[in-house]
Amino acid sequence: MEALVVVSLDGVLPHQVTTEWDRxxxxxxxxxxxKMTKEGSVVVTTIYEANNQKTQVLDTATPPPxxxxxxxxxxxxxxxxxxxxxxxxxxxxSSDQAGPHNMMVTECTATRIGGRGESxxxxxxxxxxxxxxxLVGPVEQDFDKNRLKSEVRAFRLDGSYDVQVMCTVMFCAxxxxxPVSNCLDSGTNxxxxxxxxxxxxxxxxxxxxxxxETLSAIIRVLAKGEEEDNMGINGNASDIHRPWxxxxxxxxxxxxxxxxxxxxxxxxxxxxLIVVYGCHALHRDEKLPSTRNDVY
Length: 296
Known about the structure:
The protein is mainly β and 296 residues long. It has helices spanning 199-203, 253-287, and strands spanning 2-7, 17-18, 23-34, 37-48, 69-73, 82-84, 88-94, 103-113, 122-126, 129-130, 140-142, 147-153, 156-157, 162-172, 181-185, 190-194, 210-222. Mean pLDDT is 72; it is low at 35-57, 198-208 and 229-244. The chain crosses the membrane at residues 259-282.
């Protein structure tokens, strides 16, 4: 019997949020019965312990809706759907209609996909500022690739391997673009800027100059030492599609059961024929007359 135990040490609320600064223990129990006495041993193993392109201006006459996409990238700038807790990622927002100068992030929340029990949303960015800068960094303008980006440490929420991140992005028309937010890191009391803005002040502007869109992306997050094929959480609704071999044959459950039963019956009949033939051969040998010459 084996279980994964997570001890929350990161100070991130709610406690359902699992980050690289938590401690992970794989607990395995070996219970044996000897002389009607239960004797067992528990083995605890620590798995993981912390440790210039010109600005593209959105014209005022750009027709709505302005669309964008939210994607996760690895450090090689490759899109991904799966990561391990603590992996450095990039959360990227890009648009074919607007550049980083004309986009700002107002809110971001994370929720789990599937699983059982109550799912508590985890706020990543609030009023344009990241709540936990060590986990989700400030939103930066990437003019080289015409996008917004934020450095993220992979995390997950208890009860599921899949995390859905939803962000509200506002688009600002005109040459001035979107203003930045001045944020305070409560851990270090340091001020920093992020390319988001308080939602109220943003909406206070004329609606003709601003439009908003909610974006979402899903990522599967595993702990160190976990295998995706061995996942056993019920209700996990997200599937990461993997290519099947060319010679793979799909069979329905009923057809598979019938094939197994038919093969078992054939094997049973062959075994019965072998036994009957063996018994018949032994009985025939006993009835054969002796050809040995007796010497007196």
